[in-house]
Specification:
Elements lengths: L1 H20 L1 E4 L9 E4 L2 E4 L2 E2 L10 H19 L6 E8 L5 H11 L6 E6 L10 E8 L2
Parallel strand pairs: 5-6
Antiparallel strand pairs: 1-2, 2-3, 3-7, 4-7, 5-7
């Protein structure tokens, strides 16, 4: 058993530099965040909030739309589309907002929606933010 564990560890460690070399950032990075990273044919998007200085919408519908528009822009910059999204994670600050979020979410994924997890959290990093959404897509 120990030998198997050591072999698996060695494979992970050996593969790590290869994966790091094949990472391609998408968008303008800050010291702590990149909007998305492409590894192979997969695009890993960072979480997007539904608030912006230009659109300080306080409704769950408005914030969900803004978050998904942000994701759409990042994925288009990466060379893929919302039709290629495979998985999303939605973070809500209030479970009562689930219906309103779902209403808008469906408009971005009208058929064959991606796999999704929805989690209720105590707070998001920006005050008054109601939703944050992160997605993973594949390249066409």
């Amino acid at each position: 058993m120990r030998r198997l564990a050591l072999t698996a560890f060695a494979l992970v460690v050996a593969a790590a530099p290869v994966a790091a070399q094949n990472r391609k950032p998408v968008g303008t990075s800050s010291p702590t965040l990149t909007p998305a990273i492409i590894v192979g044919n997969t695009v890993y998007g960072s979480g997007q909030l539904g608030m912006s200085r230009n659109n300080p919408d306080t409704t769950i519908q408005g914030q969900t739309k803004q978050a998904l528009e942000n994701i759409k822009g990042v994925f288009e910059q990466a060379g893929t589309t919302m039709a290629n999204v495979a998985k999303c994670t939605v973070f809500l600050t209030d479970v009562k907002d689930f219906g309103g979020m779902n209403e808008v979410y469906r408009t971005f994924f009208p058929s064959a929606p991606p796999a999704r997890s929805t989690v209720v959290v105590a707070a998001l990093v920006v005050p008054n933010a109601k939703v944050e959404i992160e997605c993973v897509a594949v390249m066409p």
